[in-house]
Give the backbone structure.
Amino acid sequence: MGHQSNGIIPLPQLSKELLECIDKCEKLHACINNNLKGLMMNGRVALFGGYFSIAHEHFASMLNLLRMHYPASAAALARPHFEACFRGMWVNLKATDSEVDKLFAWKAPDFPTMAVMLDDIDAGYGAEGALKLFHIHWKTLCGLTHTGIEQLSRRFGDTAILSTFTDEDLIKIMTLTASAATAAVVPLLGISGKTQEAQDLQHFHSKLFGWSE
């Protein structure tokens, strides 16, 4: 077999650009974490909160994995993070009462496809197309999670089998993850009565990433 390893491959140094992106994401994660403290939720809003709590843990794990030089594992969590964010938004907005009851019985309802889900929440939250745009990344995220070509093609160096994720790859993945997190937690804060905190989070995200509200 070709592409054989010649012994132990030293971990690469994280670039300045990637470290800056990780730092921004960690600041956003901490800000979100602080805003989620003390939220009073029940019913479908509690389900929304539960889904986002899972996503928030994935986000933290991705950042830790990147700092440990495991980019493939970090990238593999981007889809479950993304899915948990938007599934929570959809349940809050569109799930029927019987579907909510089913979820609280820990039985999964028949969720729509991601394209339909994003269409529903984009219209329901008045996002004017901003949420629907996330769908263009869905196929790539699926490939990163399910060991598709998106992962395999980033596993071969010139003389060894190793991760070849570029800084550009990882910065794009983490910026998308940060945007999905903010897109979900802003309405969660809003429906929980923290309107000012929701607005402040949007401003903070914009300051970090240049994201226009």
